[in-house]
Amino acid sequence: MKNILLFVLLSTISAVVLAGGLGTLVYPPFKHTWGITKGTEAKLDMLLGNKTDFDNPQGLVVVRLEVWDDPDNDKDDDELTAYGVNSNRGQIIYNKSMYALALYGETGSGKNQFSRPRGIAADPKGDVFVCDTGNRRVVHLYNGGKELEWVGSFGEDLFKEPHGVSITEAGTLFVTDRARGTIELFTYDGEHIRTLGGFVYPTGIAVDHPKITKTRYGESAIYVIDNDGTELRKVNYRGQVTATVRITDIPAQTGKLSYLALDFYDNVWITDSVSCRIHKFDKDLRYITSFGECGDGDYRFDHPTGIAIWRRFGQVVIAERHSAQYLWIGTDIARLDAAMGEGRDGNPAIKINFFLTDRSYITVNIKRKGELVRRLYEHKRFKQGARTITWDMLDDTDNRVPAGEYEIEFVIEPTYSSYTYFEKEVSTSITLGD
Length: 434
Hints:
Elements: H1 2-7, E1 11-12, E2 25-26, H2 30-33, E3 36-38, H3 41-48, E4 57-63, E5 81-86, E6 91-95, E7 101-104, E8 106-107, E9 113-114, E10 120-122, E11 127-132, E12 137-143, E13 148-154, E14 162-167, E15 172-177, E16 182-187, E17 192-196, E18 205-208, E19 221-226, E20 231-235, E21 241-246, E22 257-262, E23 268-272, E24 277-281, E25 287-291, E26 307-310, E27 315-319, E28 324-329, E29 333-342, E30 348-356, E31 360-368, E32 371-382, E33 385-391, E34 404-413, E35 424-432
C-alpha cells in the first residue's frame, strides 16, 4: 500500500471513516494508510523537490508489476505502480519504488518528450503506452522495475488526435482518435491491425477481454466515451455498438464524461469533470449510481479527470485538477421499503425492496421493540441492483408474529478490500394489523 500512498502524495484527510461510514466509495481504514488518502501540490513539491506542479492531469493507470511480485508472499499483492499524465508539463508522474516518486518526460516532440499527452495504459510486464496527442503518436515506454525508459513511438502517419488508450493482456492496443472518429487497433510493436469507425469525437476508452486476469467475467467488449463526452458506448471487437447511454439519461446533474475504468465485476466507472461526480454503470450500461460533488472536502472532487482501478482488490485512484485521491470500492443501499404482498405460495407476505450499488454481503433482521424476532438472512451475498426479498411474517420458531410495528434492519458489507473493515446499517419499518 505504501506506493499508493506516495502516489496520492501524503496529505491527511480531515476525518477517519469508521464502521457505519460505508458508501459506494470509501476511504481505506486508518491502519492501511495512516489517514493518508489525498494528495496536494504542496506534498508533490515536498516529494519531488519543486520539480513540477499538477498542470492539467489527464489519464491514469495502476498495475501490479510482475518484477515486484514475490510469489511466496501474498501480502504485497496490493502494492501497485501508478502512472499519471501531467499533460501541460509533458510528464508522467509515477512511483519508481514503494518509497519514491519520479518524473518522466518534458514538453517537446522528440525522444523522451510529449505534447499535450492524454490517455495512458500499462501492463504487469512493464509496458506503458501514452497517447502523445499533440505529436499525433503513441509512445511506448518500458518499466523494468525501477524507472521508465523510452522504447519508441508509432502511428505518426495515421493519427490526427490520439486521445485514449487501453490494452489487453493478449497484446493488443485500442486507441481512440478523436479527430478521425475511430478506434485504432495495434500490436505492441506498433503494427496497425485495423480501424473501427463510426464514432464522433471519441475520447476515453477501456477494453475487456476474456484473457484479462483478476476479473469476474472478462467478455470481449470495448467501452468508449463518444460524442465529445456526452455518450458512453459498449462496442464489440467488430465495431458494432451493443449498448449506448447518453449523459441526459443519467439521473444526476452531469456535465462532461472524461475517463473510465472497469472493476472486477466489469462495472464501468466514469469521471464527470464538470459536475465533479463519478458515475457507475454495470457491464451492459445499466445505470447504478453517481457519487461525489464539487469541493475540497471528504468524498468531494475537484473536477476529476483520470480514474484507475486495480480490479482484483477494488483500489481506486482518481486524478483531480490539483490533487489525486485514493479510495476503495464499497457498497451502499438505496430505496429500501416494505409493503404487504404475496409470497411464492400465494399467502400474504411482506415484500422488502432495496437497491444495492455493488455486490454485498447482507444480514437482514426483523425486530420488534429492539428485540430480534427473525433473522431472514445472515451474511448472504447479493448482486447489485434492484432486489426483492420476502418475509412470511413468521418468527424464528415458525409462529405467526402478533400485530404491531416491526423494524426491518439491513446490515451490508462490501466484497472488495473494504470487506471486514466497513459495514452499514439501514432500516425501515412496517406495521402489521390483526
